[in-house]
Design goal:
Strand order of the largest sheet of chain B: 6-7-8-3-9-10
Helix content of chain B: 25-40%
CATH architecture of chain B: 3-Layer(aba) Sandwich
Largest interface: A-B, 18 and 26 residues
Oligomer: heterodimer
Mean pLDDT of chain B: 91
Distance between the termini of chain A: 49 Å
Mean pLDDT of chain A: 90
CATH architecture of chain A: Orthogonal Bundle
Shape of chain B: globular
Radius of gyration of chain B: 17 Å
Distance between the termini of chain B: 32 Å
Largest sheet of chain A: 2 strands, antiparallel
Number of helices of chain B: 9
Number of strands of chain B: 10
CATH topology of chain B: Rossmann fold
Largest sheet of chain B: 6 strands, mixed
Chain lengths: 295, 230
């Protein structure tokens, strides 16, 4: 058997792929968190719950309305984004003048409520969501068999990250967003409706989480805990990448997914803590994170 | 065009403006002179709706703006070039220039702006805050000329700049006056103010205490020296 560094190649590549898939979710989720944190200065603890909600919306669309996966990939983020508008308008917007900690507590509470309601309705074991027929099966890449759906997840996530990055860095809407992140009162004094922009930014950030949720639905069973399982790691990713850094969250998301995957090959016992070890080291060396500005 | 009556402003507990009264007519260049801490910048920010609390009356083209949010005041046709310039570090020169939305027809087009400020064209792709102080000031003025706002609030545009750049800013202000813009200017440097302005309001302790037409400036030099402590 073909070996790499004394380990069987299929094992290595398999874990690499698993790492990339986890990394795809880390990247999408931490990207949304970064966008929200940059604009609202709020650590959105409800992010995992909204990721889960995205998956449940896709499930509901399929089972109650017969709307397929591809339409859900667009509709579920819109639905969850609209829910985000309500959350921001009704609750979060009241906290901007207070300490960050209040935003954290509020969104943590929202997460508990949303997850609790889902658990009450669907139980903890969750509901299945089928892989769309065109993405079923596996492809032989020569060095390994790759389940097609998993390859699609990595690709779709990378494309969505790229689109988000392009919108923020290369368009006039993105320029306004960056400017408002720097000095919101001045941007508003130029005639831009900043409160509305903040609401839409929150909606956009949680729509990214919902998009990730739809991607995740066929891989993990759609269950109330799926967000909570991810979110702690995602916060570590955000801290490592640098709070509010767009590029940082994408690169760090994929990078840490791969590191985690490879750790499963080389030192399986360490795989669940490796991201936090990286976090400790990064915080010691660069307290602002790998891509963060200043200290 | 702009009428300010009994304007009071607060930052938290500190009461900064104590009933400011003055007016600006269409097509005029008017300055606010005064020592540091007299309330000149706070007056600008209060007109623009950028202070936490304000009372009194600020009417623009006959419409009351005291209860409006700053974006709506901007949409009414007032634009601010802030004292700290407010150039965005995460935006390129062009992005900074194009940031304020066009709110009405009648602003300068890009060709005219680049003719006035050739440096901005040469450095279009640079990061906004990598420009020199003078270039940043030009960028801060240029970006509000595009928008079609007819009343421009320029807060100390010459502060800390080399004489040759001060002259260029003076030329710019005379040029935009010729084009029908109205300018409210905060200045410490009244010699510069005298080269561009029609009237001067003198501020002290959060009030306007005197008005001197520019053609009477020479006759009022002693008074002005006392006001400004120079």
């Amino acid at each position: 058997m073909f070996m790499i560094l004394g380990y069987p190649a299929p094992l290595m590549f398999g874990q690499l792929l698993l790492g990339l898939i986890n990394g795809a979710f880390y990247a999408l989720l931490s990207l949304g968190l970064a966008v929200i944190f940059g604009m609202l200065n709020i650590v959105n603890f409800a992010h995992g719950a909204l990721f889960m909600l995205g998956a449940f919306v896709a499930w509901g669309l399929l089972n109650f309305l017969g709307i397929n996966y591809w339409a859900a990939l667009i509709l579920a983020p819109l639905v969850v984004g609209a829910f985000g508008v309500v959350l921001e308008k009704a609750f979060i917007s009241r906290l901007y003048k207070l300490d960050h900690l209040y935003g954290l507590l509020l969104t943590f509470g929202l997460a508990l409520v949303i997850e609790g309601l889902a658990r009450n309705e669907f139980g903890s074991s969750g509901v299945p969501y089928p892989i769309p027929s065109i993405l079923q099966g596996a492809a032989n890449l020569g060095f390994m068999f790759m389940p097609i759906y998993r390859g699609w997840v990595v690709l779709a996530s990378a494309i969505m990250c790229l689109i988000t990055w392009l919108v923020i860095e290369k368009t006039s809407i993105g320029a306004t967003l960056r400017a408002a992140t720097e000095n919101a009162p001045l941007v508003q004094a130029f005639g831009i409706n900043v409160p509305r922009m903040i609401t839409l930014t929150y909606a956009g950030g949680v729509a990214l989480a919902a998009f990730a949720g739809v991607l995740a639905a066929p891989i993990y069973s759609v269950n109330p805990n799926m967000g909570a399982n991810f979110i702690i790691t995602v916060f570590a990713v955000v801290v490592i990448g640098g709070m509010g850094s767009i590029l940082g969250s994408i690169v760090t998301g994929f990078g840490l997914g791969v590191i985690e995957g490879l750790t499963k090959v080389f030192y399986p016992q360490g795989s669940s803590v490796v991201i936090f070890v990286v976090m400790v080291i990064v915080l010691l060396v660069r307290p602002a994170g790998l891509f963060g500005k200043g200290a | 065009m702009l009428e300010v009556r009994g304007l009071n402003s607060w930052y938290g507990e500190s009461h900064i403006l104590h009933g400011v009264d003055f007016d600006v007519k269409e097509g005029e260049v008017v300055t606010l002179l005064g020592r540091n801490g007299a309330g000149k910048t706070t007056t600008m920010k209060s007109i623009m709706g950028l202070v936490p609390r304000r009372e009194g009356s600020v009417t623009f083209k006959g419409a009351e703006t005291i209860d409006l949010r700053s974006d709506l005041i901007a949409r009414a046709g007032i634009a601010l070039c802030p004292e700290e310039r407010g150039i965005f570090a995460s935006l390129s020169v062009t992005e900074n220039l194009m940031l304020p939305p066009v709110i009405a027809p009648g602003g300068l087009d890009l060709a005219t702006i680049y003719a006035l400020f050739p440096n901005l064209k040469d450095r279009a792709g640079s990061q906004g805050t990598k420009l020199s102080g003078g270039e940043q000031q030009m960028l801060a003025i240029a970006r509000i000329l595009r928008t079609g706002a007819k009343l421009l609030l320029l807060d100390e545009p010459t502060e800390g700049l080399a004489p040759v750049i001060v002259q260029q800013i003076g030329r710019t202000i005379r040029e935009i006056k010729k084009r029908g813009f109205t300018v409210l200017l905060v200045e410490q440097n009244f010699r510069f103010a005298a080269t561009v302005a029609d009237r001067h309001f003198v501020m002290e302790h959060g009030r306007v205490i005197d008005m001197i037409p520019n053609h009477d400036l020479a006759a009022n030099m002693d008074k002005l020296h006392t006001y400004l402590g120079v």
